[in-house]
Design brief:
CATH topology of the domain at 2-72: Alpha-Beta Plaits
Mean pLDDT: 88
Strand content: 25-35%
Strand order of the largest sheet: 2-3-1-6
Number of helices: 2
Amino acid sequence: MKLYVGNLTFDTTDQDLRDLFTQYGKPTEVALVTDRETGRSRGFGFVTMGNAEEGKAAIGALEGKDFQGRNLTVNEARPREDRPQGGGGGRSFGGDRDRGPRRY
């Protein structure tokens, strides 16, 4: 079961998360999400537990609990949404769109 873990300090390491979640089962994968440009943690990550029972135990024990001075958000990870490529959020900056004919 893959879990989302949020509200982490920027100093949290993969090993910190692995150690925390080992109390509830066997984490098979731990991944902190980092900024592409700076390499700095973005304050969240994902932990894959060995099975659903371990994942649910971790959620029940850790959701809202203090870890390194922050209250964790822990829930089942949702599938990643497809997003448009190229940035800009689909907005066009093409100028006079929908303004009608130009008058000089």
